[in-house]
Design brief:
This protein has helices spanning 15-29, 71-96, 108-115, 131-134, 140-153, 164-171, 213-221, 241-250, 266-271, 287-294, 308-311, 325-337, 339-352, 358-370; strands at 2-7, 33-38, 55-58, 100-104, 122-127, 158-161, 177-179, 200-204, 231-235, 257-261, 275-278, 299-302, 318-321. By secondary structure, it is of the alpha/beta class. The strands form 2 sheets. A 7-stranded parallel sheet has the order 3-2-1-4-5-6-7. It is globular. It starts with a strand and ends with a helix.
């Protein structure tokens, strides 16, 4: 199979870039011809390693550069860049004759150009966030933009959702929808025997509104004084860092919640922790949940759309809670006060997420891509 992944860039250490990189590498190792086409990579290094057998082409259409111009000139420069991008990606498709072009959902203009490639190849769209966020709600302008974006996406040959809940939303609008989970980047064959630190809770994610670390701080503030030896280490960077640090100080939790920044070995941090907390408003999947569970620790997670309920079996290998502060606090307290059950959940969690191992999941992705040819 000759497969092309069309992406904005793979320069940021985000979940989408990580999972797509995993798939690109795996498909190349499975013997497929894989090309990664970006348009805003420039000279930035890859966020994650790329196999040498994967070809990379960057079209140097950096849309973000147009914002340095005054308003009218900005529209003109954006239009010129759009025309150049359309010309170059069509020329590339004519020359390479890919069997499948795969891309996440981006802007309306981007989708219109991608759908024009259907004259030459098959187009597969991947949904990496929740339909309820990407395609509904917002201001009147947002809703109009989402309407036209959905109209473009409807033309795809296949849409792949990461969860059953997201797939059901898409099926109301698109004829051909499949559900395939993200692969687990690394499943430790054996745990390293790292000693768990007493009272240590871990959270991982971008410090952005979607992840709702403010909810986590508020929830922990309700119980922290009862368990002074327990604390939370939060790993991640983002625009909300300063306001979250202020919130921690206002709640008097500077000695119980720590913003640790990024880590080069998150699996080691999982293993050192008693349990993981996930407080998002919405998700495309929730890969960090799977990672934590693979390291033998249970998770407390909001039952947000979509992902956690596909991954966690409530009261068996983790706990699901309502998307409110009080219920999250109660579930965290249960995990703190039930040591035996917590350890048993961790053992069960590791066993249950073995189904997300790359070797298993990539066969499903390969089958989905092949189904449109």
């Amino acid at each position: 199979m000759n497969i092309v992944f069309l992406l904005r860039s793979v320069a940021k250490k985000n979940g989408v870039e990580r999972t797509i990189t995993d798939k690109v590498n795996a498909l190349a190792n499975m013997g497929h011809k894989v090309t990664m086409v970006t348009y805003e990579q420039g000279n930035h290094p890859y966020a994650f390693p790329i196999e040498k057998t994967v070809r990379h082409v960057d079209l140097h259409c950096c849309y973000f550069t147009v914002y340095k111009y005054p308003l009218l000139k900005r529209f003109y420069e954006a239009w010129k860049m759009k025309c150049r991008f359309a010309k170059e990606i069509r020329a590339f498709a004519n020359q390479e004759h890919p069997d499948v072009v795969v891309t996440p959902t981006y802007t309306i203009e981007f989708m219109e150009i991608v759908m024009s490639l259907r004259r030459q190849t098959k187009v597969v769209i991947e949904s990496h966030t929740a339909f309820t966020h990407d395609m509904t709600g917002g201001s009147m302008i947002d809703r109009i933009q989402k309407y036209f974006l959905l109209r473009s996406v409807k033309q795809c040959d296949l849409l792949i959702a990461l969860t059953s809940g997201d797939a059901e939303c898409w099926k109301q609008h698109i004829r051909n929808v499949a559900t395939v989970s993200n692969p687990l980047t690394f499943y430790p064959k054996t745990l390293r025997g790292t000693s768990k630190e007493n009272g240590r809770i871990i959270a991982v994610g971008r410090l952005e509104p979607q992840k709702r670390f403010d909810r986590l701080i508020d929830a922990f503030s309700l119980i922290a004084h009862q368990y002074p030896s327990w604390y939370i280490d939060v790993y991640g960077e983002g625009n909300d860092k300063e306001c979250l640090q202020r919130q921690i100080a206002e709640k008097g939790l500077t000695k119980q919640i720590y913003l640790k920044g990024v880590t080069s070995d998150v699996y080691s941090e999982y293993e050192r922790s008693q349990f993981f907390v996930f407080s998002s408003d919405y998700e495309g999947f929730g890969l960090v949940l799977v990672e934590a569970m693979a390291c033998g620790i249970p998770c407390v997670s909001t039952d947000c759309p979509f992902g956690p309920s596909d991954i966690i079996e409530d009261n068996v290998d983790g706990l699901l809670c309502k998307m409110d502060v009080k219920d999250l606090a109660e579930k965290m307290e249960w995990m703190i006060t039930h040591e035996t059950e917590r350890k048993e959940m961790g053992i069960q969690a590791r066993q249950s997420v073995a189904r997300y191992r790359k070797k298993i999941i990539m066969q499903e992705w390969e089958k989905a891509y092949l189904s449109v040819i």
